[in-house]
Structures are given as structure tokens and as C-alpha cells.
Specification:
Elements lengths: L5 E5 L7 H8 L7 E6 L1 H10 L5 E4 L12 E6 L16 H16 L5 E4 L4 H6 L7 H9 L5 E5 L4 E4 L6 H7 L2 H19 L5 E5 L14 H14 L4 E6 L1 H4 L2 H4 L4 E4 L2 H12 L4 E5 L5 E3 L17 H23 L1
């Protein structure tokens, strides 16, 4: 019998929809044990506000996480200043980062098999005087890795990015042989480690229209992308490209691929979000731990109304459980 998976779930921005999504998820039976890393009074307040009737049970290391509908294990974190839905408070910012530290360290220490994150509000954290550019960079620093890769996935499509949150004018200079090599190796390795794909088939987009049209529309494909892919093919990777991005995302190519690698954020993610927004999962590759997240933001206008859609968080938990179980099985077989 497979050993059950336990995931840490951070509730995100207290004023946003994260806390209530965690509670809404607890109205359903779950295969994975979930431990919400958050302020218990915050969850109690939102539980009462929405009349969900969830039983909140204190969790400590060594305890079994609850999986039954109507119950939720909570790893309490101190420091919350206010619990008001929809009202940002800079005094909550240090608490939000503490929840991330507790969950990440718990994964590194083996208390959890992975972590799932509800959305945070980067602006209010920075307004509090705390430099914070996002979950991904925070986890990268905590885990001490040189490079991480953002990948969004639905059940039908996986899209990873060579560059993420850069102005378009800076993208070309950022696509270096070193960066492309690192990202592709991480994508290849983690498709093996966390998804059980022994020989991943990866489609790689070009940067320019028509993948440069033989150099007439840009030389990045000829000078950087193709030579780098050829070196990686010599390492045994199955890489197709560089392909024009406007035809890469068609059944002709996708039906025979495990993932697509886009050169920049808005080259790959609009296609994925059109195909599966609300049920897509944000996955951080290159970490020594499993981390998944939702594909949406804090939605302050919906907080406290009970109308937020739990679909993306549900998929993030399902994907996190699948990835953690795949890695555990792989480790056990080695």
C-alpha cells in the first residue's frame, strides 16, 4: 500500500480569498492529508462569517493530517494583526511570510511531502517595507538553489518559461545559452522526477515570429537557441524546435509532446490560460521540494462572499499530491 501524502497549504493574503478557499476545500473528502499553515483565529473568523461549519483541529509534527469532509488540520502561526476580508493591512505582511517559512522548512525537514500556496499580495508586502518579488523567488532563496523554473499545467497541457516577469525589451538579452541550458535541464529532470516521464518530449518555441525566418526576422534562434538545443540533444534529451510559437500550440505538435518551453511569459501563458483558466496549476520546478499554487490572485473583491471558485486550488492539491507520490515512489525504487 502506498504511503499517504501530507501537504502543507499556506492560506496566503489574510484579506484575500485564500483563507476561505482552504475552508471550502475542507468541505470535501481528500486523499492527501492537508495541513493549513495559517492563523487559526483567521480561519475561525472566515469559517464563522461564511457559516461553513468546518471543524478546525490543531496540528503538530507527528500528528496525522485530517482528510475527512468537514474537518481541517491547522498548523497555527502567530503574528496576524487583522482578519478583515477585503481590507489589506501592511501589519499582516510579516505574518504572511512566516507562513511561507514554516511550510517551506517543514518540507525541507520532511514534515510535509510538498506545499501548496494560496495567493499572496506582493504590493502590500512591499508597502510594509519588506522586499518581496513573489513566492518563486522566496522559495528559491530558502531552498538555496541557483535557478528555478515556472511551469503552468492543466491535465492537457504543460508550459514552462525560460524568462518570467521581465519587460519585453529585456527578454532577448536574457535568453543566453547558460540560462536556456539550465532551464531545459531542470524541466527535463523534473518531468522525470515528479511526473514519472522517463524520456520527456519537449517542444521549444522560438523567440521571433516564424522562429526567425532563417535569420530574416531575428537571429536569436540561429545564434543561441538552436546551438543550445543541439548540445542538449547530445545529452540524450528529446527536444523539438525552435518552433514558431503560433503553430507550436496546435494538436499536430502537442499531441506528441509532454511539455512546451516558451521563451517569455506572454508567449506561452495566454494559450494555457485560455485552455484551462480556473483549473490550471502553477508549479515551481528546480526546487528540492514539491510546490504548486493557484493560477489566480487574491481577488479582494470576492473575499468574504463565499463565491470564489475553489477549482484551481483543488487542482493544485491534486497535482501536488500526484507529484509528491511520484517522487516518493521513484526514491523508494532507487
Amino acid at each position: 500500500m502506498n504511503e499517504p501524502v501530507t501537504l502543507a497549504l499556506t492560506a496566503g493574503e489574510p484579506a484575500g480569498i485564500g483563507p476561505e478557499l482552504c475552508l471550502q476545500l475542507a468541505t470535501e473528502d481528500r486523499r492527501a492529508g492537508l495541513v493549513v499553515v495559517a492563523s487559526k483565529p483567521l480561519l475561525e473568523a472566515r469559517n464563522q462569517q461564511l457559516a461553513l461549519g468546518i471543524t478546525l483541529a490543531d496540528w503538530s509534527p507527528g500528528n496525522k493530517a485530517l482528510t475527512e469532509a468537514g474537518s481541517l488540520s491547522v498548523y497555527h502561526v502567530d503574528g496576524l494583526a487583522s482578519t478583515d476580508a477585503g481590507k489589506l493591512d501592511t501589519a499582516n505582511s510579516a505574518y504572511v511570510l512566516d507562513t511561507l517559512r514554516v511550510a517551506t522548512q517543514g518540507c525541507l525537514d520532511g514534515l510535509f511531502d510538498g506545499m501548496v500556496t494560496a495567493p499572496v499580495h506582493k504590493g502590500v508586502i512591499n508597502d510594509a517595507g519588506i522586499e518581496f518579488s513573489g513566492h518563486t523567488e522566496f522559495l528559491q532563496a530558502m531552498c538555496g538553489v541557483e535557478r528555478v523554473v515556472m511551469m503552468l499545467a492543466t491535465e492537457e497541457l504543460r508550459v514552462a518559461l525560460v524568462t518570467t516577469h521581465l519587460p519585453l525589451k529585456d527578454v532577448s538579452a536574457a535568453i543566453t545559452p547558460e540560462r536556456l541550458t539550465q532551464v531545459t535541464r531542470i524541466l527535463h529532470k523534473d518531468l522525470q522526477q515528479f511526473f514519472g516521464i522517463e524520456q520527456p518530449r519537449i517542444l521549444v518555441a522560438g523567440l521571433n515570429p516564424h522562429a526567425g525566418e532563417g535569420g530574416h526576422l531575428g537571429r536569436e534562434e540561429l545564434d543561441v537557441i538552436e546551438p543550445t538545443l543541439e548540445r542538449l540533444r547530445n545529452e540524450g534529451m528529446t527536444l523539438t524546435g525552435p518552433l514558431p510559437a503560433d503553430t507550436l500550440f496546435t494538436p499536430h505538435w502537442l499531441d506528441n509532446a509532454d511539455a512546451a518551453l516558451a521563451m517569455y511569459h506572454d508567449q506561452g501563458l495566454p494559450v494555457l490560460k485560455f485552455q484551462g483558466f480556473g483549473r490550471a496549476v502553477n508549479i515551481t520546478l528546480g526546487l528540492p521540494i514539491v510546490r504548486t499554487s493557484v493560477d489566480h490572485g487574491t481577488a479582494l473583491d470576492l473575499a468574504g462572499t463565499g463565491t470564489a471558485d475553489v477549482g484551481s486550488l483543488r487542482q493544485a492539491v491534486i497535482e501536488g499530491e500526484r507529484m509528491a507520490a511520484t517522487r516518493k515512489k521513484r526514491v523508494a525504487s532507487e
